[in-house]
Amino acid sequence: MDRHKKKLLRRLYVLTAGGLVCGLIVAANLFSLQIIHGDEYADDANQLFTYTSTIPASRGDILDRNGQTLVSNTTVYQLQITYAFWKKDGQNDRILELVNMIESDETGLVNDTLPITSGVYGTFSYTKDEDSSDVTRLRKFCDNQGWGTDLSAEAVMENLCAAYEIDTGLSKPDRRKIAGVRYQMEQEQFSMYNAFNLASDISMDLVAKISEQHEKYAGVEVNTSAERQIETDYAANILGYIGPIFAEDWDKYKEEGYSMNAQVGKTGAEQAFEEYLRGTDGERSIQTDHRGNVVSEQETEEAQSGNNVVLTLDINLQKVAEESLASRCQSISGAGGGAAAVIDVKNGEILALANYPTYNLATFNQDYDELAASELSPLLNRSIAGTYAPGSTFKVCTAVAGLETGVIDADTRIYDEGVYTYYDGYHPKCWIYSSTGSGHGWEDVTGALQDSCNYFFFETGRLLGGKKLENYAKKFGLGEYTGLELSGEKKGRVAGPTARAAAQENDPSLRDWSGGDTLQAAIGQGDNAYTPLQLANYCAAIATRGTQYEAHLLRSVKAYDYSETVYTKEAAVLNKIDAADSTWDLVQEGMEKVTGEDGTASSVFQDYPIKVAGKSGTAQVTGTEQDNGIFISYAPVDDPQIAVCVVIEGGDSGNNVAPVVRDIYNAYFYSGTGSEDGTNNDTGMYDVIA
Length: 690
Description:
The chain has 690 residues and is of the alpha+beta class.
């Protein structure tokens, strides 16, 4: 046998032997699988895994007092990531791909609250103010990570990229996209028991793309969700918005029975009436096999929708107030923002709270950066959080205090010389002196209100003293909360020696109260600072001759199916200002004269079909060239129904502001007859068709 044949035989022998060994190994493994461990592996293959998932309940609707729906729900497609099936390896690449797909979608919105933008002048930068809730939350997160709390946006991104192993070779926008989602996953406690909402309101086209690549994007699921649908262009500051529960708030919401994925009210009525609007989540039981395939799915507990909240708001009146306020602010040279508050004097129901500038709640998220950067601060709810010196509108309070304490009466007459010289070294002037070089002459209390005579109220204030004046301001609810349910209401600041002493504890540099401070307080200047809502409710107390109700936005709560009324808000008295009928007669007569012939607002109201009482105010603001304009009013005089306060920053005078009040009265008393075609900058946007 030659050597070639021997070599071939040896190879065949090795292959045969190897095959025999391999065959023996395979046989042994089969024997182990089928005979020794057969039952065990069969059980594993047949084993089903059961877990429960939450079925989110729809929130209730928000309606105005006339039943017009302001906020409802609409069904949208939502992209969720389920932890159990989400592959951690390479997740950053998949996140970037998904975010790019979502951003190219016509409607989808990525769930991302990281307040950092990418690539601005080649750097990362914060997109929100230092005091914003998103930045505060980010700083707390950084502190918990041990990174510190005073990091630049660049430093935060550097830490996030390191923590999440984000490739620093990627572009800054791409790094920002990945970091935003990973950060949001942490905020929403993405875990085995909590799916993460990656995006909402995605299109059917994107649903199809994700479904076609289900293996690549394992763990990414498309679900339907009830999203809030804003059905009005008005009342943005009142209605508010909802958002996810953040990690730092979870303990509180957990105790109240919320699921981690719940959307909760963050601001406005959505937040204030959360207990009524929230529904009761249902549960779904899901069974999967050992490969993660869904075998069965069953709803074990039905979700119950939330109740429907009816507000005291009149959305048509709100519309007119917002539009008229905007038109007036824009027409006054040098004017800035403004606010209007309208309240039912007989029960404290708020009919309108208007702000200028404002925003569209439906596009709030997209517009946020621009809104936050605006110098006019459209995110500020001026009607309840803007505080202003009331100017001469405060003189009614001074008059009531003077009449009730006896320092003046119906027969008191004070001669206005133009310059008040009681105190050495301090000689304030009546407003008329600057244009005439003289005063108003003899004034009684009704004439002083009609003419808004500073001199008369300087003297009345001096005779009263700061302490009594301060006490009467408090009786009218000034410098106190109104009872409003919305968060963010400012308390304001009352002027007086007690309040000054309290303020000195925090700021020792403040000087002691003096007689000159009392003079300024008496005409609504100095330390006085109140919200438009407070001033409207102050005016309401004058209209009712001393009964002031808690201001409120909730009217009633209806069952989820509107089958019954679950709760009705009852009016509650906030303050009772005890004063003689003669006192109310005098101050109301003075306010009627303001809108009558020769009054400071006669050009706006003297021919008005309904008798109106009012008081104009011009408030000086330190550091500005133009005064604020303020007007408070109630109507009708013989049977007061509503009280109104309008403030325009830089409005220059109360008379400039009064046309907005007239527009509001037109909308309230002549509903359906006001015409937007009857624009008139002197008397308002909406002419009355008598």
